[in-house]
Amino acid sequence: MGGLFSITSRAIGTILTAAIYNGDRQQIVDNLYPAMFDDASTDLTAFRVTVTPGTVGSESLPTSLLGEIQRMRFVIKAIGAAIDSTVAQWYQVPANAFANGLHAARPAAVAGSFYISTNTKMLSVGTGAGVWYELPFAAGTKMVFNQASAPVGWTRDVDVDDVTLIVTAAGTGGATGGSWSMTGITAADHTHGMSSHTHTLAGGAAGYAYVHNVGFDGSGQMQSGTAGGGTGAYNYTGGPSTANTGTASATTMTSDGTWRPAYQYVLKATKD
Question: Which residue of 125, 171, 179, 204 shows the fewest CB atoms closer than 10 Å?
């Protein structure tokens, strides 16, 4: 029957007064709540019936409360099957569907399962390969962090240290190069090619100009001299040296441990 309550039976010949009439009707009204309605499943077969509600634009509308319930069952079953492919009934709970706890305490991953890490606030999704796929970063993702230590769920990389970063549009990301560290830079003895030139220093202690000329005469001799007031001219002529021929020479860079530009430490870490 539709209602899980009984109505009052009246004997033949009972005079139907207003109080009796109104009381009987009020009894029905008082029992119109879900707990007093009959169920929608007369047996297990009826309990498992689902009806597709259709799709947007081609909906299948119910004509009774029973039809409404059967369409909701259909949607519940579809959600369960999407999480766990073994789900066959709308009331079946997906295996390991949702769990939460510390990140390090995650159970073995099951395809379609979800795990919320209470300390990292990250969502992990079990894959068909039996591993966790973490949102929003997949395992193995590398990032630079401006903080003292790697975040929970990340492992600090120690393969590089005291290096600079180069942003590349065409090179291979993660590749390394160069051999100079950032720990101070000095230059060892080396030579530079030099052409004829002039140095001028104005406003000396005695208020005169000082000019230093370096050049080469027609025979390749280097000539150096000064011109200006006070001390007179000084001239030097000498033979050329290999340092003045303009030949390039190698430069060796060494570190003295003291030179540092303004900096801020960062670290590189890999998602577990």
Answer: 179
